[in-house]
Design goal:
Layout: H1 5-10, H2 17-33, H3 46-58, H4 63-71, H5 74-77, H6 82-89, H7 91-103, H8 111-127, H9 130-144, H10 151-171, H11 175-189, H12 191-225, E1 231-237, H13 240-249, E2 261-267, H14 270-283, E3 292-293, E4 306-311, E5 317-324, H15 325-333, H16 353-358, H17 363-369, E6 374-378, E7 384-388, H18 393-400, H19 402-406, E8 408-413, E9 416-418, E10 430-434, H20 451-459
Parallel strand pairs: 2-5
Antiparallel strand pairs: 1-2, 3-4, 4-5, 6-7, 8-9, 8-10
Helix pairs in contact: 2-4, 3-4, 3-9, 4-7, 4-9, 6-7, 7-8, 7-9, 9-11, 10-11, 11-12, 12-13, 18-20
Length: 461
């Protein structure tokens, strides 16, 4: 049987007998409840539920999440009552299923309705992150079958995926989902751009892969000769949508993009990451400004790795990412990799602070302040502050505290006195100079990017 629940159970680690029975029960319940229902493609509706549950299992989520994947549409599309779900599967699964059902689709049918739909998603997620995981995996299969949806709806669904789901998945560090979703959405949002970059990739892909494979073998030999043997390597292929954004950034000169294919090196321990980096740099010269230490300074979503771009000696540049196996798992699965959301007796309902904060904003503000491209700057004490690209020192001050912003009199960037309206760059160290007599100026609104800063400036001028 194609949709065999045992295939899903077989992929799970450390699953108890009771958890396996819960998954089997949800599988059978959903199959019966949706019997006779069809999708736009003509296939049984249950296929969608099975694929959603399988996507959840591939993220190594718990039995409650997988069972909720099977059941996520029973309240919306069948006669099943909430009381029945609670009686058969418990309050935890009912909360997740209701959370996913109440969200519905975040459709662009008027700002108020759209705002409310997104707010429901964020509120349910702030109580239990698994609501969002189930919704993501539901959306993933919907995107995989988007060609069967009426054409007039395809672009709207794809754009919604690209503008809302992908950035949230990225902020949570679930790159396995965000990469797949953005590549599935891209051709429906910009068919011409998709065709253009796909054609360019085909022309040079085999040649690039062959060159990278030769280089990978050389690196492996150098590491082994230096006594570092407990490692393995593979490739990271840049997603087509991510590549297209870079392609536009470099004014459509694909030769300027050095990380279409990158080498990934997985080692046993953190100290081996730095050891491997030293061995590589002793043989291949690094490109200035391209060495990034995300181990000492992780990204806001938890991503850790060493990045370097080196000259290979034959005219090419290759990006190398070095990390431990644990860091690699975190890089792919993000918050879904955390035992906090598994069935190990820990609290599964910890509120994600930035998700809770988003509840106070409209969709446009959320996209601008939370889901836009980000920069990471530091306080003098080394704390990481996460801001949207284009943010100024004024935004930084208000992100620390409203009193700091309101009393801002000057700023030092990397130790140098700078204008308070200076646009910040990634990894700068920012020190705000305050005075008791200082007050915000309404002109500051022209230099701020975040809604938080704008709100405090308006309230105090």
């Amino acid at each position: 049987m194609e949709n065999d629940v045992e295939k899903i159970i077989a992929t799970l680690k450390k699953t108890t007998k009771e958890e396996k029975e819960l998954i089997r029960k949800a599988y059978q319940f959903a199959k019966m409840a949706h019997q006779g229902q069809k999708r736009n493609s003509g296939e049984p509706y249950f296929n969608h539920l099975f694929e959603t549950a399988k996507n959840i299992a591939e993220l190594d989520m718990d039995a409650v999440s997988i069972s909720s994947g099977f059941l996520h549409d029973v309240l919306e599309d069948t006669d099943t009552k909430p009381e029945t779900i609670e009686k058969e599967f418990g309050k935890e699964i009912l909360f997740i299923v209701e959370g996913v059902s109440k969200i519905g689709n975040l459709r662009y049918h008027g700002a108020d309705r759209y705002n409310e739909a997104l707010r429901k998603l964020l509120f349910a997620t702030s109580k239990d992150l698994r609501v969002l995981i189930v919704k993501f995996c539901d959306r993933l299969h919907n995107m995989e079958t988007l060609s069967f949806v009426p054409k007039e709806k395809q672009e709207r669904i794809a754009r919604e995926t690209l503008e809302i789901y992908v950035p949230i998945a990225y902020r949570l560090g679930i790159r396995k989902l965000s990469r797949r979703l953005e590549d599935l959405a891209f051709p429906f949002v910009d068919k011409e751009g998709f065709d253009e970059i796909s054609s360019l990739l085909k022309e040079s892909h085999d040649e690039r892969l062959e060159s990278l494979e030769k280089f990978r073998k050389k690196v492996s030999k150098e590491l082994a000769d230096s006594g570092l043997t407990n490692f393995h390597s593979d490739y990271r292929v840049k997603t087509i949508y991510s590549l297209y954004k870079k392609y536009l950034k470099y004014k459509k000169d694909i030769e300027k993009i050095n990380d279409i294919l990158a080498m990934r090196l997985m080692v046993a321990k953190t100290e081996d990451c730095y050891r491997a980096l030293g061995i590589i740099h002793s043989v291949w010269k690094p490109q200035p400004g391209k060495i990034k230490d995300y181990i000492a300074f992780p990204k806001q979503n938890g991503y850790q790795s060493l990045h370097t771009t080196v000259f290979t000696g034959n005219g090419d540049l290759v990006e190398i990412q070095i990390r431990t196996e644990e860091m690699h798992k975190e890089a792919e699965y993000g918050i879904a990799a955390h035992s906090l959301y598994k069935s190990d007796g820990k609290n599964k309902k910890e509120i994600m602070p930035w998700i809770q904060t988003m509840l106070n904003y409209s969709v446009n503000e959320i996209k601008k302040n939370f889901l836009s491209q980000r920069i990471f700057v530091f306080t003098p004490k080394g704390d990481v502050i996460d801001l949207p690209v284009g943010a100024s020192a004024i935004d930084f001050a208000y992100s620390i505290h409203s009193d700091i912003g309101n009393k801002m009199a000057g700023v030092k960037i990397d130790g140098k006195l700078s204008a308070i309206n200076s646009i910040l760059k990634d990894r700068e160290i920012i020190e705000v100079i305050t005075k008791k007599s200082a007050k915000p100026n309404r002109k500051w609104l022209e230099y701020t990017k975040t809604s938080l800063a704008k709100k405090h400036i308006k309230n105090n001028t």
